[in-house]
Design a protein that fits this description.
The protein has one domain. Helix content is about 70%, strand content about 0%. A two-stranded parallel sheet has the order 1-2. Helix 2 packs across helix 8. It is globular, with a radius of gyration of 19 Å. It starts with a helix and ends in a 7-residue tail after the last helix. About 35% of the residues are buried.
Length: about 250
C-alpha cells in the first residue's frame, strides 16, 4: 500500500469504529451483556425481550421519549451518509448505496419478496428456538397502548430498517471493501454484527439474524442497492409490531 493511501486507510478505520460505537456496535455490546445477565438469572426460555417498551407511565412523556428515541437513533444513519459524501471521487451516498428512487417499482417488488423469503422461515426458527429453550419470549409492543401506539410502531419499524440496513450493510460493507477485506469476510462481518446486536433475544434469534445478514449482505454485493433491504426490513417489523398490537388481545398473547 502506498504512503498516500495510508492516511485514507486510517481515516476509514477510525470512521467505522466511531459510527459503530455510536450505533449498532454499541447495541451489540449491550446485547452481549444482557444475554450474560439473563443466563446468570436462569434459562433463556424464561426470559422476555420487549422490543418497544414504554418509557414512562405518563402518556405524554412516553410519547415524547419514544419519538426522541426514534429521532436520535437515526443520527448514525445521517453520519454514515455524510461521511460517504466526503469521498469526492464517488457518486452521492444515496446513489452509491442504492437508496435513490431510480427504480421504485423493482425495489418495492424485491423488498416484498425478500420480506416473505426471510419472514416465513423466521417464524419457524423462532418457534424452534422457543421449543429448544435458546430463544427468549419476544414481546414486540409495550403492555400499555394508546391511540398513538400504532403510528409510533410504524415509525419504529422505519427507523430500525434504516439504521440496520444503511449502517450494517451499506456503509459497513462499503468501507470494509475499501479496506481491502475479501468479499466473503466482508459479508460474514456484516452478518455477524447483525447477529450480535440481537443476542439479547437469545441464541436462536441471533443465529436467525446472522442468516438474514448473509442474505441481505449478498443481495447488496450483487446489486449495490440497499433500498429493497430497507423496504423488506420495514415490512418484517411492521408485520411483527403492528400485527402483534392488533392481534395480541384477540388470540391471548397478553
Amino acid at each position: 500500500m502506498s504512503s498516500s493511501a495510508e492516511p485514507a486507510t486510517r481515516r476509514i478505520r477510525a470512521e467505522v469504529w466511531i459510527v459503530l460505537g455510536l450505533s449498532l456496535g454499541q447495541s451489540a455490546v449491550y446485547a452481549v451483556i444482557s444475554l450474560l445477565a439473563q443466563l446468570t438469572r436462569g434459562p433463556l426460555r424464561d426470559a422476555t425481550a420487549t422490543l418497544n417498551r414504554s418509557q414512562s407511565d405518563r402518556q405524554w412523556l412516553d410519547l415524547t421519549l419514544q419519538l426522541l428515541g426514534i429521532g436520535f437513533s437515526l443520527v448514525p444513519v445521517a453520519l454514515a451518509l455524510y461521511l460517504l459524501s466526503l469521498d469526492r471521487d464517488q457518486p452521492g451516498p444515496l446513489r452509491r448505496l442504492g437508496l435513490d428512487g431510480s427504480r421504485p417499482g423493482r425495489d418495492v417488488m424485491w423488498g416484498a419478496l425478500l420480506a416473505i423469503g426471510i419472514g416465513l422461515p423466521g417464524l419457524g426458527l423462532y418457534a424452534i428456538g422457543r421449543a429448544l429453550g435458546v430463544t427468549a419470549q419476544i414481546v414486540p409492543v409495550p403492555d400499555t397502548t394508546y391511540w398513538w401506539t400504532i403510528p409510533v410502531l410504524i415509525l419504529a419499524a422505519l427507523q430500525n430498517a434504516a439504521l440496520e440496513e444503511v449502517v450494517a450493510v451499506g456503509y459497513l460493507m462499503t468501507r470494509l471493501r475499501e479496506l481491502r477485506w475479501g468479499p466473503w469476510i466482508v459479508l460474514v462481518a456484516s452478518a455477524a454484527l447483525r447477529g450480535a446486536y440481537h443476542l439479547y433475544q437469545g441464541f436462536g434469534q441471533a443465529a436467525g439474524n446472522f442468516v438474514m445478514g448473509l442474505v441481505f449482505g449478498y443481495w447488496f454485493q450483487r446489486t449495490g442497492r440497499v433500498l429493497p433491504l430497507v423496504i423488506a426490513h420495514t415490512l418484517l417489523d411492521l408485520a411483527t409490531f403492528v400485527g402483534y398490537a392488533l392481534l395480541a388481545d384477540r388470540i391471548g398473547l397478553r
